[in-house]
Write the structure tokens for this entry.
Amino acid sequence: MAERQYEGKDHAVSYQKYRVSPQEVVEKVLSFLERRKAKPFHLALDVGCGSGQGTVFLAPHFTHVVGIDVSPAMLEFALASDHPPNVSYRQSPAEQMPFEDGVVDLVTSMTAAHWFDRPRFLLEADRLLRPGGCLALLSYTMDFELEGGDHSSQLNAICQKFYAALLPHRSTHLGSSSLMLYKQMYDSIPYEDKEWHECLRVRRKMPLSSYMHMVETFTSYQALLQKDPLEAKRLSQDITDKLVSAMGASSPETDVTVVVKYFYLLACKPSAK
């Protein structure tokens, strides 16, 4: 059974505003597809698209891109955001999408496939893909790193305390790390032509406050916020104060470089003989 997350409007707003868009990983996905399938590419599906941050990166490379999500709140923000005319959005579960067999060049999911009913989703992706079409699933580990010059070690020690405090509130569905779920999906994909990539570091410079808001979009923080709002806010403020002090900064609006560690799998459906 699929897990449903990120469906509230407040959470959707934060997700759209603070999550890092994985443009560098999308470039790896497109390179994999281009080496295996002749252009033009007609249709790409971004499953679990959320607010469409990653969906729009696909637009220049396909005739039509469709973002799929089960959450009306997420799709509301995706539709309200600027997006190219060849991008559209549809509400649908990942395990049963409203498209004909064999019409899709790329099925991708950016930091969402761990919530799907994985066996059913993989069967659905196989049904939808054209021969020679590709499946690309990507996500990241939750231990973001901060780069702040001579203060980096101290900053990351504080961050590790933040992540450790949130770990007890993490979904049991995910376990301690979703990376293992993706490895299981990789192992269960029957295609011979497939690749596993363990770590691609994506760096973004942003205010420290944006890093904090990004961590606050994690489902573990949201679970704590629902259970004990005062404790969640106290924890967040305490970590913010310690990071500002360690940086020698005057406010949390001081810039820091955030390192997000992506992992991803790529697989190509065999061409028809």
Notes: The longest helix spans residues 229-247.
